Amino acid sequence: MRPAAFSKRIYTFPAFREAVCDIVTHFSDLRAASRGGRISKAFAEKIMLTVTRVNGCRYCSYGHARAALAVGVSEAELQKLLQGEIGAFPEQEAVALAFAQHYAETCCQPDPAAWQRLVEYYGPEAARDIQAYL
């Protein structure tokens, strides 16, 4: 039996409000991730673009694409991210990008084994930083 295809989310005002509240609630985690230096700004934008592609929000896509270009993500990498070509990235990024895709597709409820893989690959601090960007 074939699993149902993931359909794009409709980003309604209540969903936007919830996202803003989530950012405010976890702002200290995001600030710590940003200041920690374990995840570069370019890598963080790649992670966020992966989620944006899954969610299908054109406004988020535009904003994160501009931010990614501003921090050094190449146009070629940007196009690969927007097309979902995670396998085109080196393993040290692809593991987090695959987790980001899984995270978005499962509505922020990733499989515990996927989270464990992330922690084992990057270590607990960097995994928490990646989670903060998600």
What's the layout of helices and strands?
Elements (H helix, E strand, L loop, with lengths): L12 H13 L1 H10 L4 H15 L2 H13 L4 H8 L8 H15 L6 H11 L1 H10 L1
Helix pairs in contact: 2-8, 3-4, 3-6, 6-7, 7-8
What does the model show?
The chain has helices spanning 13-25, 27-36, 41-55, 58-70, 75-82, 91-105, 112-122, 124-133. The mean pLDDT is 89. By secondary structure, the protein is mostly helical. It contains eight helices and no strands.
Biggest sheet architecture? none
Mean pLDDT: 89
- Note the quaternary state here: single chain
Q: Tell me the span between the first and last alpha carbons.
A: 30 Å
Rg, nearest Å: 14 Å
Give the topology string: H per helix, E per strand: HHHHHHHH
What's the total count of β strands? 0
Segments where pLDDT lies below 50 for 5+ residues?
none
Helical percentage: over 70%
Q: Which percent band covers the strand fraction? A: under 5%
Instruction: Name the overall outline.
Output: globular
Output the number of helix runs: 8
Broad structural category: mainly alpha
